[in-house]
Design a protein that fits this description.
Length: 124
Amino acid sequence: MDTPDDLYYTDDHEWLRVENGTATVGITDFAQSELGDIVFVELEPEGTKLGQDDIFGTVEAVKTVSELYMPVGGTITAINTELELSPEVVNEDPYGDGWMIEIELAAPDEAEELMGADAYAEVT
């Protein structure tokens, strides 16, 4: 499994990339491989304010639906609209083109509470 060192990770298999007070969120390579072929992604709209661990969307695979949880609190500033037409991109490139939302961080320190790559690799 691919686990980039520059990201933060959650027990629920979301990743977070922090840059200049904003963050990009998606699901991990482990999560997409466990889900199988992703056929639909539904995300909360831009402007939605959510707390840490709140649900920001769902991912539907061939045999299951999984909720997506906010790794940190914040306001959604962008959603990956490409996933509406091509949800399989999450399977193909979970850390790149398969990103899901961008957020403005409510409390940047929350990211420090998440796992680094080594800790995440131990739980997967």
